[in-house]
Design brief:
The chain folds into five domains: about 1-85, no CATH class; about 90-145, no CATH class; about 155-330, Nucleotidyltransferase, domain 5 (2-Layer Sandwich); about 345-415, no CATH class; about 425-510, no CATH class. About 45% of the residues lie in helices and about 15% in strands. The protein is built from 21 helices and 18 strands. The chain has a five-stranded mixed beta sheet, with helices on both faces. α12 packs across α13, α16 packs parallel to α18 (about 460-475) and α19 packs across α20. The protein starts with a strand and ends in a 23-residue tail after the last helix.
């Protein structure tokens, strides 16, 4: 076994070293001493001795070596010509290379750990720096250490991925700090980026966020590339991955195509991988010490950092991501639909005895007409609306409410007795006085006197409701006249006003504003006349 020759010069200085080698051959062929040659070439004597040993082991004379082309001479000197037999330490290390390679792939195994175990078995082994250097040489010689430059076409693709880390803010319901997944989208040609924190990583949240990303870009690329996330891909395949139904609906709506990276091949989408890393530096880091009260505030601050990131000049191009996008890529995107894609989901539910159905995702209940209690219905909902269908007929429509264990109820869905009870719970004295003031000043006084009749005003609410029903039945003008006529009465009741209206006393004479008193005279008998 032999070790390949290697000088101290790097491959970047290989041409300069070859000139030195050829000059050294010429001087050696002339019989010059090592000291004079080393001084002339600016080399150390040890390096020159390495050259001489290498020349000697080729089996060729100096003249024969000088007749070789630069390529052949370089091949002999740098790559192909064996020089020094391997030491036993080198042989022991090389015998463990496969083991080191396999162990480094295991979770938690580091080079430091392997080196410690290596020295325990071989106390005369390499130092840690030499150990790592030899492992690096092995890695650089493998194909998977090589990278390939990709030319991106403007408007051709959008790459998407979830960041490995999450951002946190306060949960408005529990008041506790909660972590939220972060979606990163990038157009590889310009590196123009979109970042958003999602309420969760569900399909609905993902595709709503992707729609907002396209709105941010102002157009639609030809293709959308993702990894094999479960919200995107049903069955992974190197050649024909299967996408779920919602992904296909989304792609048809935006007139784009879908593709997925190979399993465990992050280099298939290097642009978004790079932007995820940059987002840690330019978004996650600036926000690390901020406490956000809700997700909206968090995304507002993310957008502020994102705009700064997209406006930062790129050293390679001298332009920012936003400038490259607007100048060279935006015009290549396809136009957006007139409205964003709305994710609608369907679930079945049974109408409970309280004529409500439960939307399990939010644990919130929505009312339907009470006559459908006990029937099975279909709930169709998106991020803003909840619809309830029975036999393809919509029977209820509500604005979505995510309050857990809450109720959303419409009055028209309630039976009459429940509606009355609900209305009763909302009545108070101010309500009835306000209703009386809308009819007239005397009506307001009648309501005030009626409410003041009992120690507990709640006991007069039914009588007040009766007065309101009379105002609707006989009209506001007659009701005001009846109240004016009833003012002199010492005790105001619902029956008094009703009798005035039924007997048309409000129409018999003009409204009396002052009470009528009987004059005192000699024929007036008091209580003593009956004793």
């Amino acid at each position: 076994m032999y070790l390949r020759f290697k000088t101290g010069e790097t491959m970047a200085n290989k041409n300069t070293s070859m000139l030195q080698i050829k000059k050294a051959l010429q001087l050696l062929n002339e019989g010059r001493s090592e000291r004079s040659i080393a001084s002339y070439l600016g080399l150390s004597r040890n390096t020159l001795r390495h050259y001489k040993n290498n020349f000697r082991l080729t089996g060729l004379t100096y003249s024969q070596l000088l007749s070789l082309s630069d390529g052949d001479l370089s091949s002999l000197v740098y790559n192909d010509q064996p020089l020094v037999p391997k030491t036993s330490r080198q042989e022991r290390f090389d015998s463990l290379i496969d083991y080191f390679t396999m162990e480094l792939k295991r979770v938690g195994v580091t080079r430091q750990l392997l080196w410690t175990e290596y020295l325990q078995k071989d106390p005369e082994g390499y130092s840690y720096s030499q150990f790592c250097d030899r492992l690096n040489q092995l890695k650089s010689s493998q194909n998977n250490a090589l990278t390939m430059h990709l030319e991106h076409v403007p408007g051709e693709r959008m790459q998407v991925d979830f960041a490995g880390k999450k951002l946190s803010c306060m949960d408005p319901e529990s008041g506790q700090i909660k972590e939220y997944p972060v979606l990163v989208c990038v157009l590889p040609f310009s590196s123009y980026t979109y970042v958003e924190a999602l309420v969760n990583a569900s399909q609905r949240s993902l595709y709503e966020a992707l729609s907002r990303a396209l709105s941010y870009f102002g157009g639609v690329p030809v293709n959308v590339l993702s990894d094999n996330m479960k919200q995107f891909v049903v069955k992974a395949s190197r050649y024909e991955p299967s996408f779920n139904e919602m992904a296909q609906q989304w792609s048809v709506y935006y007139n784009t195509t879908l593709s997925a990276a190979r399993v465990r091949k992050p280099k298939d989408k290097p642009s978004v991988e790079k932007e995820v890393h940059i987002s840690y530096l330019r978004i996650f880091a600036p926000l690390r010490n901020q406490v956000h009260s809700n997700l909206f505030e968090l995304n507002y601050n993310i957008r502020d950092c994102l705009d700064k990131h997209n406006a930062t000049p790129m050293q390679r191009y001298g332009l920012s991501r936003k400038q490259r996008f607007e100048l060279q890529e935006k015009s290549c995107l396809k136009p957006l639909p007139s409205s964003e894609f709305v994710v609608k989901q369907e679930v079945k539910a049974k109408v409970q005895r309280n004529y409500h159905v439960i939307l399990g995702e939010d644990m919130h209940q929505y009312s339907v007409p009470y006559i459908h209690a006990g029937e099975t219905v279909k709930i169709v909902y998106d991020y803003s609306e909840v619809e309830v269908f029975l036999n393809m007929r919509r029977i209820a429509l509500h604005r979505r409410n995510r309050r857990k264990n809450g109720y959303t109820t419409k009055d028209e869905h309630m039976p009459e007795n429940h509606l009355r009870y609900k209305q009763a719970k909302g009545w108070d004295a101010d309500y009835f006085i306000n209703q009386g003031s809308k009819i007239g000043i005397n009506s307001q006084v009648i309501f005030q006197r009626l409410l003041a009749r009992n120690r507990f005003p709640e006991q007069t609410y039914n009588a007040c409701l009766g007065l309101l029903s009379l105002s609707k039945k006989y009209g506001l003008q007659r009701f005001e006249a009846a109240c004016t006529r009833a003012l002199p009465a010492p005790n105001i009741t619902y029956g008094l006003i009703k009798n005035i209206l039924e007997n048309k006393q409000d129409m018999a004479l003009d409204c009396v504003t002052e009470p009528v008193y009987i004059p005192i005279h000699e024929n007036l008998r008091g209580k003593d006349a009956y004793s």
